[in-house]
Amino acid sequence: MRHVLEIDDLSVVELDQVLTLASRGDVPTPLAGRGVALVFEKPSARTRNSMELATVQLGGHPVYIRPEEVGIETRETAEDVIRTLGCYHDVVAARVFSHGVLERMAAVDVVPVVNLLSDEAHPMQALADLLTIRQIFGDVSDLTVTYVGDANNVWRSLAIGCAMTGISSRVSSPTGYGATEQDLARIARWGPPAQVVDDPHEAVSGAHVIYTDVWTSMGQETERVERLAAFEGFGVDGSMMARAAEGAVFLHCLPAHRGEEVTDEVLEGPSSRVWQQAENRMHAARGLLWLLAEASR
Predict the structure, then answer these.
(1) CA dist., res. 277 & res. 243, Å (int)
(2) Is 213 tagged catalytic?
């Protein structure tokens, strides 16, 4: 049974296959007559729309499931939820608070489990990011991606994906919000090690892609004041983008907190590719579901 809880649950070859399938216009219907369960403990505009449309494009039937409809750990255990959904669906994709819930679902090994976001990883976003970078630059072998901000689930999946595709990466975070040694070791197993740079302006110097995410994610609202103080000076603005390589682009997984991690000048400026990136959530999802559907035949 194939599960994708983090981007490196794919091999390097499979990752390339997903990105190639995501780019194809001749889309077959390997999910015809098959259901895809979309379990959302946390809401999301991009994730729901991209997954539902990707499923439909492959001929499948998506079913959006609200948290109270399954009640993981309140009405039923994670194991019983996946056993139930596996009676009806060929894939279960879930957006959850705790990564451990996904691991428990996958351990039952009933149907493929896909991580739509957890506190540890966001592989679907990383697939869209890598697809966007490939579309913009073509050859990615000499690229550098700099991530400025909280070394969170979005950064972790992106950095692993960069290493798997031969892209160099840097990360710049305030004290207490940076990459762990475990993270860095995992990235280095796949390719170019991630470079940790304390000064964000130095980190973006000469980089081809500048990436950031919100400083206060869903579920961290009580930390907002503390985080705003800690991340002062890490906002991506025009002066920071000016230090990047010529032709550099700006990416953000969205939604953005304008005026905090990024200014309107950058988000709406000529270097921004955030809407192309958002659209690619659908194409990347289609590529992954296509791969899983073919593997399960």
Answers:
(1) 22
(2) yes
List, for residues 221-247, the tens digit of each pLDDT value: 788 889 999 999 999 999 999 999 999
Query: Which residue is catalytic, options 3, 46, 253, 273?
Result: 253
Active site residue 276: no
The boundaries of every CATH 3.40.50.1370 domain in the chain are 7-122+281-295, 123-277
The reported pLDDT for the residue numbered 184 is 98
pLDDT tens-digit readout, 120-143: 999 999 999 999 999 999 999 999
Distance CA 6, CA 115 (A): 7
Q: Which of 208, 273, 281, 283 is catalytic?
A: 281
The CATH classification of domain 7-122+281-295, taken from the options 3.20.20.70, 3.30.230.10, 3.40.50.1370, 3.40.50.300 = 3.40.50.1370
Q: Looking at 130-200, which runs of residues are DSSP E strands?
A: 144-148, 168-172, 195-196
Cβ atoms within 10 Å, residue 297: 5
Mark whether 87 is an active-site residue.
no
Average pLDDT value for the chain:
96
Class of the domain covering 123-277 = alpha beta
Does the predicted model carry a pTM greater than 0.85? yes
